[in-house]
Every structure is written in structure tokens, then in C-alpha cells.
């Protein structure tokens, strides 16, 4: 599935704003539920996000920004998997750290993407309506 070059350009611009030195890749994966994940330096956008015609373009921009923030703070890969496993086993500190990293990704991602709080709220509401929180950073 082809990604609209507009989103690739936006991602490059946001990575520059963060002064990221690593090259971040944008890929797609087949999954009908709207959302995305970051693994290493790659953001995987689900087909259900890109093909959903009820979601505004701001929703996709926000998801990319959210995932970029995770990459920026190295909250992907083994670091995140370890926290998820500890949280699953009842470790409250790991659960709190995951919650804080998600909040930071939402807050800094909104600012990075230059979106209004209403644009983000509308995007998240529509993604929740599809049965998903829009982000699934389990790698
Ligand atoms: Zn996240």
C-alpha cells in the first residue's frame, strides 16, 4: 500500500524539528483497525488508518507525530517490550511509566504536528469509535 507523499514530507519535517539524527522510516502493515506502532526507527501505519475515509488527515498526522515522539525518546523495541511484560505481570511502576510515555507522546506529538487540541480530540474520538485507541506500541 502506497503512503501519500504528504505524510512522508510531514514526518521528515517533524523529525527535523526534533533534531533527530537517525533516519526514520514510514511503512504500512495490513490491519483493518486504525492505528500505528513504532519499532526501532520505523513507524508502521495500519492499512485501516490509511484507508479509513471518516478520519481527517489530521488524525494520520497526529499518529505519525505520536510515534515519532516514542522513537525520539527511545520508547520502542526491547525497552517498550520489557515495560509491557513487567506491566502485564503487575509491576505498577512499569504501568505508570507506560502511561506517562503515552501522555507525553500525545502532548508533545500534538505540539510537534502543530495541531489544535480539538483536532486531536476529534481524531482520537473517531479512532476510538473504530474500536482502537489509535496507537499500539507493543514493539
Ligand atoms: Zn503510544
Notable features of this structure?
single chain; 139 residues; mainly alpha; Zincin-like; 6 helices; globular; binds zinc ion; Peptidase M48 domain-containing protein
Describe this structure in words.
- The chain has 139 residues and is mainly α.
- It has a single domain, classed as Metalloproteases ("zincins"), catalytic domain (Zincin-like), CATH 3.30.2010.10.
- The chain contains 6 helices and 3 strands, in the order αβββααααα.
- The chain has helices at 5-17, 47-50, 57-72, 77-88, 92-112, 117-129; strands at 25-29, 36-39, 42-46.
- A 3-stranded mixed sheet has the order 1-3-2.
- A hairpin with a 2-residue loop joins β2 (36-39) and β3 (42-46).
- The protein is globular.
- The two termini are 21 Å apart.
- The mean pLDDT is 90.
- Bound molecules: zinc ion (ZN).
- Zinc ion is lined by residues 66, 70, 102, 105, 135, 137.
The level 1 CATH classification is Alpha Beta
Order of helices and strands: HEEEHHHHH
Number of self-contained structural domains:
1
Main beta-sheet strand count, sense and barrel state: 3 strands, mixed
CATH architect. name: 2-Layer Sandwich
Beta-strand level of the residues, as a percent range?
A: 5-15%
Q: Give me the secondary-structure category.
A: mainly alpha
CATH structural fold name: Zincin-like
Mean pLDDT across every amino acid position: 90
Give the N-to-C terminal Cα separation. 21 Å
Helix content: 55-70%
Q: Which ligands accompany this protein?
A: zinc ion
Number of helical runs? 6
Q: Order of strands side by side in the largest beta sheet?
A: 1-3-2
CATH level-4 homologous superfamily = Metalloproteases ("zincins"), catalytic domain
- Radius of gyration, CA atoms, in whole angstroms: 14 Å
